[in-house]
Amino acid sequence: MTVNKELLKGSTVTLILSLLDRRPLYGYQMIVEIQKGSGGVFNFKEGTLYPILHMLESHGYVTSYWSDESEGVRRRRYYQITDDGRGYLKTRLSEWALFRTAVDRVLGGAST
Amino acid sequence: MEVVHHPQIVAYLDAVCAQVQYAETHAEIRLEMAGHLADRTQAGLDAGLSEADAVAQAIQFSGDPIMVGRQLNQAHQPRTDWKLLGATLLLVLLGIWAMYAIEVSGSSPIVGFNLFVRKLIWSAVGLVGAFAAMILDYRLLRRLGWPLLAATLLGMFWAGTLGPRANGQAQWLSLAPLVLAPALAGIFATWDWQAPRAWLKGLGVLLMPLLALVIWSSIFTVLEYGVLFWVIAVASRPSRRQAWPMAAASVPLLWTVLQRPYLRNRLLGWLHPQSDPLGMTYPVVQSLESLRQAGPWGHGPTATVRTLPAVHTDFVFPYLVFSLGWVTGIAICLLAFYFLFRLARVARKTREPFGLMLVRGALVLFGLEIGWNVLMTVGLVPTAGPDLPFISYGGHEVVYMAAVGLVLSVIRRKDIIRVLDEDSIKMKLA
Fold first, then answer.
1. With an 8 Å Cβ cutoff, is B38 touching chain A?
2. pLDDT band per the 50, 70, 90 thresholds, residue B425
3. The model's pTM
4. Three-class secondary structure assignment of chain B
């Protein structure tokens, strides 16, 4: 089941999965939370969120469900993290921690 | 006017979907992205923009529709589980090898029977069947649940009364659970337990095939159908009050099976293997003997074993262990486990309810058959059981291969079909 891995490598995936680790969200909510959380630093093209989400679902890292239609409220597609997704998030976070300490160390070495 | 029908938003979504090859996915993509654009437009309006500016801004934030569409297209392509396919092919190759070795070593009980060539032919037919089933949209079967059940019942009646017999059992009936699996999946994918007398109908679907199997087939087939029914029917969520009569009805039937003299002898033989080593318990005693003598590396790839009965069907596993050694025996078990593990993985990743039931059914059937066959050769379960799927000789290999083909068809379509309409059923499955 090979799907394009390139899209999954970006830091956006780590961001999305850690948001979903807290609670199920739909796409627009994720964008709003990422923008709020980063103080507006992360500002990517919003449409590209959906291919990433669909790819994550194809991989089995998230599942989705549609909210029921009710009076005046649009149906939303909510995404929910799976156990596989949690496992993947964990490796991504430890990779990130390693990378961050390495960069910090180099920068720290350069300034002294 | 609702903002999702704004001409600019419609044009944007058209441009996105034009890049996505499989049209069945368009409805969900549209609904999802239209919702997003509407939310973004609303945010713009709240910030004091005019509607035209708010829509233009939402589209600008969303990014190039062609790029988004292309990336979406990659997320919605047919998938192939190469590892499942590979494991299946390895099992088939192992079976072809086994038949070759049994024939050239003169271990076959049937003299002058072209085991190897016939196995090759069945395997080739099976491969074609698997490929056809994979290409076919498995959802065509969904509407055929009831007709398939009726046809299978007729076939079972024929097999039980007029069909060929072996060891006191109607031969073809051991295949019934495999054919009943898609029938049950089709029936229960759209089952409504709230409908009047649903429990009675469910009871009928359980009992009609079960009765035929109790009368004409082995205890294994009865158990197999029972477990299959349970896994598929319970996935459609009956209430406890509805499940009760079905469970209660199964008990006396099982009791009747256990009372049959033939099976009683088998069970006694299983409990006391040395009680009748030249008669009833001969197969398992010989099987254990070949396993004991095998050693880690076996007696040579084409070793001769004349003592194993049904060496090309029921007892192909002890032959392979005797000739290739128990290290290879363990490797074969691991390969079978891996095959089942891949099936379980497909089941975990399938959203569409009918496909999910099909894959779960296949997992149950293959798991029971492989598990029982291996356990019976070591004397842990009675020998009234099934062949080793893919490896044993027989025309039912074609049906096994078609079953794998169906599973591959489910995987193939998992990202290119719409699931939206089946949500209510999906919730029941959860």
1. yes
2. very low
3. 0.88
4. CCHHHCHHHHHHHHHHHHCCCCHHHHHHHHHHHHHHHHHHHHHHHHCCCCHHHHHHHHHHHHCCHHHHHHHHHHHCCCCCCHHHHHHHHHHHHHHHHHHHHHHHCCCCCCCCCCHHHHHHHHHHHHHHHHHHHHHCCHHHHHHHHHHHHHHHHHHHHHHHHCCCEECCEEHHHHHHHHHHHHHHHHHHHCCCCCCCCHHHHHHHHHHHHHHHHHHHCCHHHHHHHHHHHHHHHHCCCCCHHHHHHHHHHHHHHHHHHHHCHHHHHHHHHHHCHHHCCCCCCHHHHHHHHHHHHHCCCCCCCCCCCCCCCCCCCCCHHHHHHHHHCHHHHHHHHHHHHHHHHHHHHHHHHCCCHHHHHHHHHHHHHHHHHHHHHHHHHCCCCCCCCCCCCCCCCCCCHHHHHHHHHHHHHHHHCCCCCCCHHHHHHHHHHC
pLDDT tens digits along B253-278: 777 777 776 666 666 667 777 767 76
B235 interface with A at CB cutoff 8 Å: no
Interface touch A46/B61, C-beta < 8 Å: yes
Output the average pLDDT for chain B: 88
Weakest mean pLDDT among B108-112, B299-303, B322-326? B108-112
* B76–A54 CB contact, under 8 Å: yes
Q: pLDDT grade, residue A3 (50/70/90)?
A: very low
Question: B68, B417, B428: best mutation site toward chain A, by most A Cβ within 10 Å?
Answer: B68
Name the more confident of A34 and B364.
Answer: B364
Q: Which residue of chain A is at minimal alpha-carbon distance from B85?
A: A1
